[in-house]
Amino acid sequence: MGVTNFLVRASKFSLALAPPGSTTSPAIPAWGGRRWVPASPGSRCQAQPSSAMKFLLKRPSNGRIEMITHTVIFRLNRPATTGQRKQFLEALEDFGRAAPHATGPALVHADLQLRPEGRSVSEFLMEVRFADPDAFKNYLNDPKHQRLVTDVLVPQCESWLSVQAETN
After folding, report:
1. pLDDT digit string (tens) for 42-87?
2. Which of the 8 DSSP states describes residue 43?
3. Residues paired with 35 in a beta bridge
4. What is the predicted pLDDT for the residue at 32?
5. What is the mean pLDDT of residues 81-97?
6. Of 102, 124, 98, nearest to 113 (Cα)?
7. Mean pLDDT lowest for which of 38-52, 58-72, 89-103, 145-159?
8. pLDDT of 6 above 70
9. d(CA 18, CA 7)
10. CA 165 to CA 27: how far, in whole Å?
11. CB atoms within 10 A of CB 52
12. DSSP label of 101
């Protein structure tokens, strides 16, 4: 039996499941106690469409994903020195100038270091845009991307997370 209760936040990256019969969102303060709205009498509850859901509903009639943004957040090995951060940033920027199969250069951002050190703090973010899923798949298998992973990410990162989102 599939779960049909869900709330899609305005962020394209968040999905939260609600228990059957729930009338409010889970007790996570950032969600502000958003209310669930019944889809039809006697049915399970579902959320009002968020901007992300409305975006998905606008997908072309052929159902094809038109543009993909690949976003990666990088957390360096601890402790990370200023020199290590600089070296990593230079490697990302060099890669991003001509990211393979991308529609243009990657955007690379460094953390402003406004929060105290902790497990949820990462140093860098990179966004790469692709024309379609095939271009993204080709990017993953491209030797230049593979070298970035093996020569830079694996030895220098404690972790990295990626999200692929449909964008326009």
Report:
1. 544 444 455 554 454 455 556 677 899 999 999 999 999 999 999 9
2. S
3. 24
4. 41
5. 96
6. 124
7. 38-52
8. no
9. 7
10. 26
11. 18
12. T
| Residue reference for tokens 């060099």 | 94
The whole-angstrom separation of Cα 156 and Cα 149 is 10
The phi, psi pair for 25, rounded to 5°, reads: -70, 165
Residue 91 CA, chain-centre distance (Å), reads 21
How far apart are the C-alpha atoms of 153 and 91, rounded to whole Å?
10
Q: Which long-range contacts (CB under 8 A, 24 or more apart) does 122-125 make?
A: 122/73, 122/74, 122/75, 123/74, 123/75, 123/76, 123/80, 123/85, 123/88, 124/73, 124/74, 124/88, 124/89, 124/92, 125/71, 125/72, 125/73, 125/74
**Is 18's pLDDT higher than 80?**
no
Nearest CA to 92 out of 58, 136, 128 is that of 128
Contacts of 60 (CB under 8 A, 6+ apart): 66
